[in-house]
Amino acid sequence: MDLSPIWISLKLASATVIVLLILGTPLAWWLAFTRSRSRAVIEALVALPLVLPPTVLGFYLLILLGPAGPIGRFWVEITGTTLTFSFSGLVIASVIYSFPFAVQPLQTAFEGIGRSPLEAAATLGASPLDTFVRVASPLALRGYVSAIVLGFAHTLGEFGVVLMVGGNIPGVTKVVSIAIYEQVETLTYSQAHYLSAGLLTFSFVVLLSVYVFNRRIPITRL
């Protein structure tokens, strides 16, 4: 059995989670504490991938990231390569598709902290960065764990967006979900079963680990 789809899926999920944490953390922090009137609009945009069909999202990403699209054209000019049907394009598409699975748990965790611990740290002379690193982040540990695991697991299970943006290029964009679909199309049910059972087992184990982990971490309030 070709194991390259498994390696590509794990690499894609890992890269996606890293980008999600980098981009999602400041946005979740802003959404948790802002009083801006635009908050509802931003929250709706973040949650849009939850209700939008993956093929619709994949189609518009294909247009934006393609060589004729605004983002894809700029990428071709600076790198000489295309974003569509490439691993880099898959990462961008996966980040957008999995964005709510990282932002929403983090936002909920930050909202649960409240302003009191942050204000107390400020009165003791802590800078905003120190307050975030030493006070807010430890208190939001549950949110970080949920964001990492849900973002990782959701990326592993992608199909529609991955197929639209990345296609089915062996060794480059062929992930586990695409490999399963290909095996079913060719009636190779035994290999499809192995991949499906492995993905099912992995998803169940990581979700079970999150629930167990969160139950063992007490909710700390200052």
Q: Outline the low-pLDDT stretches.
A: none
Individual helix count: 11
CATH top level is Mainly Alpha
> Termini separation (Å)?
53 Å
Radius of gyration: 20 Å
List the domain count as a whole number: 1
Which range does the strand content fall in? under 5%
- Sketch the topology as an H/E string, one letter per element: HHHHHHHHHHH
Total number of beta strands: 0
Structural class by secondary-structure content = mainly alpha
Largest sheet: none
| Overall form | globular
CATH architecture descriptor name? Orthogonal Bundle
Helix percent reads over 70%
Q: At the fourth CATH level, what is the homologous superfamily?
A: MetI-like
Overall residue-averaged pLDDT value: 89
The CATH topology is MetI-like fold
Describe this structure in words.
With 222 residues, this protein is an all-alpha fold. It has one domain (4-216): MetI-like (MetI-like fold, Orthogonal Bundle), CATH 1.10.3720. It is built from eleven helices and no strands. It has helices spanning 4-33, 39-51, 54-65, 70-79, 87-113, 116-123, 128-139, 141-156, 160-166, 176-185, 189-216. Helix 10 (176-185) runs antiparallel to helix 11 (189-216). The longest helix has 30 residues, at 4-33.
Report a brief summary of the structure.
By secondary structure, the protein is mostly helical. It has one domain: MetI-like (MetI-like fold), CATH 1.10.3720. It is 78% helix and 0% strand.
